[in-house]
Amino acid sequence: MPESRVLICPDQTRTFPGHTLSGHFFVTCISRNQMKSLLIILTLVIFLPSDQEEVRNTRARSQMVKSQIVARGISDPATLRAMERVPRHLFVPVALAGSAYSDQPLPIGYNQTISQPFIVAYMTELSKPAKGKKALEIGTGSGYQAAVLAEIVDTVYTVEIVPELAREAASRLKILGYGNIVARYGDGYKGWPEHSPFDIILVTAAADHIPGPLKEQLAEGGRLVMPVGNPATVQELIVLTKRKGRITEQRLEPVRFVPLKRLK
Ligand code: SAH
């Protein structure tokens, strides 16, 4: 059976015989347009599986919003839209991507976790996010909660105490195009005074009290949401509201978060 070779020839398709010292072969001439079509088909063949993967993930995310979030009473349209948009499977370790839309927290390394989707949605709704607002998150972790907030508010500042997680989250958020998130490594107990006051402060790690600096950095009319209680067992979700300089406190559901650490 003689070999076959393909050449691009201007505006013609034909096959003709050729030969080398080692034997005969056929040369098939195809036009530029045919080559373009071939390349498009090749690209589709290479990328189709990942497109299907995206469709699967989008469906799983919609299902998650319906069955875990709407079904449990979250109704703020902006929060629901944000939960529909953020690709949670890109915020968990690759080996756990298949569980990204399940109803549970997942490990993200360094003894830390990405919160259960419902908790993220619940804290987001409680913070009353809206366009024009500025938010501070303490405990960047994977960056997922920051991304959910960033879908709604103008700017999110987020602080993480584990340097490796801070670095990973910052590069993940940059790759995903979240240009309105400013992430840094540090001890979030002290907040981020340079950018205060904040309309929203979300603390996604637990302590037995609300850090004083965070209360100070809350804007007039602002809301702070944080798990407060025994960091080793169970806490309550607390919402602080600042009005005319006075702070009022609302105690909500029991929750379980990893402890808020301090830099020595
Ligand atoms: N919001 C994260 C999950 C939070 S897990 C997400 O969406 O993935 C809690 C995170 O808080 C952990 O990453 C932990 O390292 C971080 N943390 C604990 N104490 C902190 C502190 N004092 N300042 C900043 N981050 C802290």
Task: Report a brief summary of the structure.
The chain is 31% helix and 31% strand. The protein is an alpha/beta fold.
Shape descriptor reads elongated
Question: In which range does the helix fraction lie?
Answer: 25-40%
Strand pairing plus helix content: what structural class?
Answer: alpha/beta
The number of distinct β-strands equals 12
N to C succession of SSEs: EEEHHEEHEHEHEEHEEE
Low-pLDDT segments: none
Q: Give the distance, in angstroms, between the N- and C-terminal Cα atoms.
A: 76 Å
Bound molecules: S-adenosyl-L-homocysteine
Helices, strands, pairings?
Elements: E1 3-8, E2 14-20, E3 23-30, H1 32-70, H2 77-85, E4 106-109, E5 112-114, H3 117-126, E6 134-138, H4 144-150, E7 155-160, H5 163-175, E8 181-185, E9 198-203, H6 212-216, E10 218-229, E11 235-243, E12 246-255
Helix pairs in contact: 1-2, 1-3, 2-3
The structure holds S-adenosyl-L-homocysteine (SAH).
S-adenosyl-L-homocysteine (SAH) is lined by residues 112-115, 138-139, 141-142, 144-145, 159-162, 165, 187-189, 204-205, 258, 260-262.
Any overview of this molecule?
The longest helix has 39 residues. The chain is elongated and about 90 Å long. The mean pLDDT is 91. The strands form three sheets. The chain has a seven-stranded mixed beta sheet. It is an alpha/beta fold and 264 residues long. It has six helices and twelve strands. Bound molecules: S-adenosyl-L-homocysteine. The site of S-adenosyl-L-homocysteine has 24 residues, from strand 5, helix 4 and strand 7.
